[in-house]
């Protein structure tokens, strides 16, 4: 079933971003895009996304123009779990920058998560990315509530180090964290293994195309 509707969250997230982020963070990368008016209802896709919360990872992979971001912004606005949103760009292929924004995104919904990581990231000898992700996951796993992390436009990343960090994150997700990746091409993740374990929900171009019933 689709998630229960909650109050608009854009203003609340902007307040939390302002409280949690340093001036080096571009807050707009962490805003959930506004829901567009007069959208064609996509009830079957919203239901797929809601059902996907029973598994660790949702992958939305399709070329440009298939409405991936629009679909997600519509869904998260009606979902009962807090959503951390990270819109990636080419510069986020730097592991330190990626981790900085990943922590910042999580802090928009839970300000205490990763509180010690920013100082670690910018220390003269920062710990490994795997060690920092382990700290982050352990803190999330100690929570009683669930969080959804959306990584939008992941296809813009061209970095083996970030791909490996994401793979480590996905393979060690605690039950409290669900990850959604929106991309134009499949990320370098063990997708076959995730499918075999029933740990993955996928929406692809064929799913995102409008049906006759949706357009009449």
Q: Please bin the fraction of helical residues.
A: 40-55%
Low-confidence sequence ranges: 1-23
Mean pLDDT across every amino acid position: 86
Secondary structural class: alpha/beta
What proportion of the residues form beta strands (DSSP E)? 5-15%
Count of helical stretches: 10
Using the alpha-carbon principal axes, give the shape.
globular
Strand arrangement in the largest pleated sheet: 2-3-4-1-5
How big is the Rg? Answer: 17 Å
Secondary-structure blueprint:
Elements: H1 10-20, H2 43-52, E1 57-61, H3 68-76, E2 83-87, H4 95-107, H5 117-121, H6 129-141, E3 147-152, H7 160-171, E4 177-183, H8 191-196, E5 200-204, H9 205-208, H10 212-215
Parallel strand pairs: 1-4, 1-5, 2-3, 3-4
Helix pairs in contact: 4-6
Descriptive report:
This protein is of the alpha/beta class and 216 residues long. Helices cover 40% and strands 13% of the residues. The protein is built from ten helices and five strands; from the N terminus they run H-H-E-H-E-H-H-H-E-H-E-H-E-H-H. The protein has helices at residues 10-20, 43-52, 68-76, 95-107, 117-121, 129-141, 160-171, 191-196, 205-208, 212-215; strands spanning 57-61, 83-87, 147-152, 177-183, 200-204. A five-stranded parallel β-sheet has the order 2-3-4-1-5, with helices on both faces. Helix 7 links the parallel strand 3 and strand 4 (177-183). Helix 4 packs parallel to helix 6 (129-141). The protein is globular, with a radius of gyration of 17 Å. The model is unreliable at 1-23 (pLDDT under 50).
């Amino acid at each position: 079933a689709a998630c229960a509707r909650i109050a608009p969250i854009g203003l609340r997230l902007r307040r939390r971003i302002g409280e949690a982020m340093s001036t080096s963070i571009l807050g707009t990368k962490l805003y959930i895009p506004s829901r567009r008016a007069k959208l064609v209802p996509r009830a079957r896709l919203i239901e797929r996304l809601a059902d996907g919360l029973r598994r660790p990872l949702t992958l939305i992979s399709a070329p440009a123009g298939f409405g991936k971001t629009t679909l997600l912004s519509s869904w998260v606005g009606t979902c009962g779990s807090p959503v951390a949103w990270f819109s990636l760009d080419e510069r986020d292929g730097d592991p330190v920058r990626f981790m900085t924004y990943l922590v910042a995104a999580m802090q928009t919904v839970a300000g205490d998560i990763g509180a010690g990581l920013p100082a670690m990231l910018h220390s003269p000898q920062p710990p490994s990315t795997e060690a920092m992700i382990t700290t982050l996951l352990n803190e999330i796993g100690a929570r009683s509530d669930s969080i959804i992390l959306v990584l939008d436009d992941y296809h813009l990343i061209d970095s083996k180090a970030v791909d490996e960090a994401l793979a480590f994150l996905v393979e060690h997700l605690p039950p409290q964290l669900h990850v959604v990746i929106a991309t134009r091409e499949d990320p370098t993740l063990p997708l076959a293994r995730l499918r075999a374990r029933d740990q993955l929900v996928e929406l692809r171009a064929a799913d995102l195309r409008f049906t006759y019933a949706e357009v009449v």
